[in-house]
Design a protein that fits this description.
Largest sheet: 2 strands, antiparallel
Order of helices and strands: HEHEHHEEHHH
Strand order of the largest sheet: 1-2
Strand content: 5-15%
Helix content: 40-55%
Structural class: mainly alpha
Shape: globular
Number of domains: 2
Oligomer: single chain
Length: 209
C-alpha cells in the first residue's frame, strides 16, 4: 500500500522577518520552522517529539557555492529547516556541481519546498519512506540514509499520525455536552488513542536511548 510522502508541502515566505548579515543564517530558523510546518524538509519528522536537534541547512551546500560568490549564506530561498540526522548525512553532497542544476536524473536533489521533492518518495502502510525515482533512490541511500533509519522514521510517522488524530478529537470533545453519551464515548476513544501514542513515544525514547 502506497501513501503520499507528506501531508503538506512547505512554502518559503517571499520576504523573511529578519535580514541577517555575515554568517548568521541561523537567525532565519524561526521563520523556517513555520514555513516548513515544524517538520524536517527532508524526512518530514515533526520537531515536537524532541528526538533530535533541528538546524538550518543550506540546500545548495555553502562549501560549494561560497567560492563562486553567487549565493549569500543567508539567502532565504536556499535554506531548509532540517533535523540533525538529515543535515549531518547530506553535508556538502552536490553531485551536479552546478548551482542551476539540482539533479541529473540519476543523482542529486530537488528543493524540499516544492512538490517536485514529493515525486521521489512515497510512504508504506506502516509509515516507512520508499523511493520511486532514480533521484529518490540516490537521496534515499546516499544523501539522507533513509534506508538505515527506517525504524525511527516509522515510529515518528506513527506518532505524528496519532498526534493529529488526538488534536482533532479533542476539538470535537470540547464542543460536546459533558453529560452526553457522545462525550463519554469520545473520551474512551481518546483514551485508546492516547495509550497507543504513549507506547509509540516510549518506543521512540527507548530507540534513541
Amino acid at each position: 500500500m502506497m501513501g503520499p510522502f507528506r501531508n503538506a508541502i512547505p512554502s518559503r515566505r517571499p520576504t523573511p522577518s529578519k535580514n541577517p548579515t555575515g554568517d548568521n543564517w541561523a537567525e532565519h530558523k524561526p521563520d523556517l520552522k513555520i514555513d516548513f510546518n515544524s517538520k524536517c524538509g527532508y524526512c518530514d519528522s515533526f520537531d515536537g517529539f524532541r528526538h533530535t536537534y533541528f538546524e538550518v541547512d543550506h540546500f545548495i551546500p555553502k562549501d560549494f557555492f561560497k567560492p563562486l560568490g553567487n549565493i549569500s549564506v543567508t539567502e532565504y530561498r536556499n535554506l531548509v529547516y532540517s533535523c540533525k540526522f538529515c543535515n549531518n548525512t547530506k553535508r556538502a553532497k552536490w553531485p551536479t556541481q552546478r548551482e542551476d542544476i539540482y539533479n541529473d536524473g540519476t543523482s542529486g536533489f530537488d528543493d524540499p519546498a516544492t512538490n517536485l521533492y514529493d515525486t521521489h518518495f512515497y510512504r508504506t502502510a506502516d509509515g516507512g519512506i520508499m523511493w520511486q525515482t532514480n533521484v529518490g533512490k540516490w537521496m534515499f541511500r546516499e544523501a539522507f540514509h533513509f534506508d538505515k533509519r527506517q525504524n525511527s522514521i516509522k515510529i515518528l510517522w506513527n506518532l505524528e499520525k496519532l498526534r493529529l488524530i488526538l488534536d482533532s478529537l479533542i476539538i470535537i470533545l470540547n464542543s460536546l455536552d459533558q453529560a452526553s453519551v457522545e462525550y463519554k464515548d469520545l473520551k474512551i476513544k481518546i483514551g485508546e488513542y492516547s495509550l497507543e501514542y504513549y507506547l509509540f513515544h516510549k518506543e521512540l525514547i527507548d530507540f534513541y536511548g
